[in-house]
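Handoff note, outgoing to incoming analyst
You'll be picking up this chain. Sequence as last confirmed:
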Amino acid sequence: MGVSIYKRGKMLYIKYEVAGKMVQRSTKLEDNPYNREMLKRQVIPEIKRKIESGEIDKETVKSKPLGWYGNKYTKSKEHLKTWHDVNLRVIWWERRLGPKRPVDTIKVGEIEELLEEKAEETSWRTAKVYLSTLSGILKIALRYGEIASNPASLAETGRHVKKTVEPFTPEEVRSILGAVDGWYQNFLALSFYTGARPGELYGLMKSDIDLERGVIHIERAVSRGEITTPKTEFSVRKVPILSPLVPYLKRQLAANPKSLYLFPGEDGGIMHGAHSTRKRWIRVLDKLGIEFRKQYTTRHTFITTMLKSGRVGLLELAQMVGHANTEMIVKNYARYIRDEHLKISRDIELFGDISSFSL
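Most recent structure output, in case you need it:
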């Protein structure tokens, strides 16, 4: 039976085994010669004595459960706009590993099995986000000295293969807009002609629409029924109103005269989010026989169509859709305009007339 001392950061920890269970505990002492000597002379002999006498047994050294650390983790993230998503991921792990599960019994192998399950349901990209959440929970246990290492940091994941999301064709856009009516037709018209995120459209107020100057002010978004700021600081922006969009905007501005919001919920207040239109969106695509894509694809469709039109520069487009610079546009959409440069006129005189020079 051995009791050893080890260092983590600036602090000293002790490690020993009881009934086949490895225990790690913080001594709350800084690493220096005096404290090491004191632990060797006083603390370690006492621990050995208690183990031999049975005062320390398997039950008395049981670590705190996953649920306890999960709760601390979610509380530490309450300031985030994405707190609700964080909480859902914590709940997912607790349901699969057990909220009462001692954290020091969680194995790397079972974490990997659960990640494979999540990757099959969604993607490896999503699974890695879930892994990051578990790693964050177990980092707290690590700081408390409950575990010697974080098993989540040792878990291996599969390679994420980014799914190609095809934008809607002009024919599909016309079909979709022709298959709906009322406020939802107006909503989709704004989606296709501005590239605004759905949450940004839910947050639009009638006062944000300036038909005289031809500008839409995007200053807020709606997420899970709550008004929040747009995704990034660059998402607060002014979007030009393209001519085909004007009739749809005029019709929507005239609707629901008592509401301040352009697309109000049933009570006249804000819509609660994507689920407000999800079923309607699915029915429309199914009715038309169009391959399913998320409603967010309206944004991708706007960006790709604008790029192909050649009527707007990369920086202008980035500003319209709320990107900080052109990097995201080039990275995500370059493949859609790969051969557009071949469509340029060949009759460009770069250096004046050189036809008279002898060859």
